[in-house]
Amino acid sequence: MNDTLLWYTARGAGVVSMLLLSGVLALGMLARARVGGRGWPRFLTAALHRDLALMSLVFLALHIVTAVVDPFTHLGLVAAAVPFGSSYRTLWLGLGTVSLELMLAISATSLVRGLIGRRAWRAVHWLAYACWPLAIVHGLGTGTDAGSLWMDSLTVVCVAGVVAALVVRLLTPGDPLARDKRAAASGVATGAPR
Amino acid sequence: MDAPRLRVDPIRCDGHGLCAELLPELIRLDDWGYPIVETAAVPGHLAAHARRAVAACPLQALRLEASPAR
Amino acid sequence: MTGPSLLAGPDLRAGMESAAGHLSRLGPLPPGAASLIDVLERSGLRGRGGAAFPVARKWRAVAERRGARPVVLVNGAEGEPLSRKDRVLMETRPHLVLDGALLAAGALGAGEVLLYVGAEHAAAATALGRALAERPEAERRRVRTVAAPPRYVAGEESAAVRFVNDGVALPTVTPPRPSERGVGGRPTLVQNVETLAHVAMVARFGDAWFRGLGAPGTPGTALLTVTGAVARPGVLEVAQGSALGDAVAAAGGLSDRAGAVLLGGYFGGWVGAEEAWGLRLDAPGLRSAGHSLGCGVVAVLPGHRCGVVETARILTHLAGQSARQCGPCVFGLAAIAGAVQRIAAGTAEADDLERVRRWSGELRGRGACAHPDGAAGLLLSALRTFGDDFLHHHRHGGCAVATREAA
Fold this sequence. Notes:
Number of strands of chain C: 9
Structural class of chain B: alpha+beta
Strand content of chain C: 5-15%
Shape of chain B: globular
Oligomer: heterotrimer
């Protein structure tokens, strides 16, 4: 009974993590695209992005702990910590481990953003674009429920959501002075001489 | 002790405008979305909101500075 | 007026004064001791780059920094398009400038002197180079020339420092000021060439002498670039505290009926002609009256030229010279210039006049440097001085000046 509970919790938490992570990515892109209006202030997008990220860490922890603790899975801590360290479905599980570690890096740097400076924080944050696909593929490859209608549908919804947000993000013009600032940083003088 | 003061780094700022949403009592946006700090000195009852506005800026362009000792 | 100080000596048209001439006329360079700062404080010398900041206070700010050896950056970039005084000084009295720079280096314990001269001011750079070659080896070793890019903002203090540090002549956010952390992270004194020339004279002849050249509360002399509707436009030296009308007389008097005066150049402000002649050249006094001598440009606008059209032209230029780092400056100046252009052309929108006033008010202090403040100040002075003309353009779409001239 307990084993079944652990097993179902691991799978359920995994699905919720995927949903939340997809939401985090979509919101992150929408925040960058400055989406907002009268009923939806900009700080809300940013705050939800952050809060959902923290929540996804919680469900991810639940997913990993229950999967490791479950005696039925024969997964040790090694599988959770070392990418491709498990002998069971080495590749798909390994991708999940990589995704986890990217998430930890992104979260940790975001928490100390004030200390490490904007450049370093940005560089790590870009890894989100690797983190999320790895999680999706991990779910498709090793997820117990992969192949079932509801799971596949949820996955499609997640991917569609992120792709839609990506389209919005790509169609948004960059920050107004982005080009000038890049030119300045590279030493090119913009503007007419005296 | 003087109140802490808000300062915008105008080079970092890209006019995202979250600061004005979170601290409308002290910050408003100009016609192009860039912040105008109407009152730099933050009164006690708005200190928490000011800290939240500072944390919310995606470019860390808003700062709260302790005013110089008189 | 007790006679020129900086421009005394051989006629300016003779070009650069050599080291031999300089030394025989003025005597040797006195040693640059720390006590020079006290002398400068008593002299009351203020900076001549535009801000009129007390020189002694600036030097003390650098001297008080512990740690790294300071740097002296001689600012000869002369960003103001209407100003020529720095160029003329560098071309004809380069040894005075070098004296001042080396005195500063001595007083502050600086290891390095940088000559920051506009790349396009070839004659000035050549003269300074030749003068430097005439100096003893010990002095030559400490001085390096840096060519400033030809941009308005390149002459701004923090832009000059940043250019030396990483090749980008754009202002940075201050604090930290160059006096705290400048070239190579070291405390840096950025001082205008004319100011340093005055230092060279004060060091030789004393603070009492300097105070005697000017008027109470406003000591010494100043270089002015008098241009526009005057008979002999050019660079003159006048006693501080003298009237603006005297400076115009020294430039040969008016060559045309005067409408207004642009005091301080593009970074300054308009004053009506009648009010202008009586103004005394006194930085604090002018400031309290809402004017500024800035870098000493006195540009007389002839009566037949329209102040609105001139202002539109200047604002367009200033908008184009934005460093383009700060949103309020980039968009604010563009909008203001656009609106004033429309007003000048007679195609103004209904809100234009009210909007430029509001936008200008909103610009103050919201850029990394004072460029937007300068433009806002220019516009507000234009509204004060040419108020009726602005209204006429705005309401009737035509130029009141043109109508007046035709009549």
